[in-house]
């Protein structure tokens, strides 16, 4: 039995039939690896964005229902982060912006999104206005994250800051109901 195993191993090492397949393998392998890494990155971004959207929608639903709870910036942020448990370090990387919109003299919400700068120790100042009865409020949540595979084609196509962090932005609007 040992002799058969040694003969098989010797035959395997002396066989040169696969030598012609090395070049196509070497050329195509990086394409397949890049596709797999981009797929992993795309799925990670999709899961994070879905979690943020759902958590923001559920939190805004609680605010709209007017359960008697007075929400402030920290309680909204805590509620979103608790509902989006899949987002790592959510309390430090989530930035909320809430502005009042006038339905009668309409102007678009601010287009520039202010996210947390991971390189600085102080969070940027953003607008956070509390609404009065029957006012339309626009809430925007921006979550910064580090890409899973930063060298993939998909990650290179995403907008990143100076520290390599990308952002996911979710928005919601609601009318402040009277108490």
TrEMBL record:
This is TadE-like protein. It comes from Roseivivax lentus. The lineage of its organism: Bacteria, Pseudomonadati, Pseudomonadota, Alphaproteobacteria, Rhodobacterales.
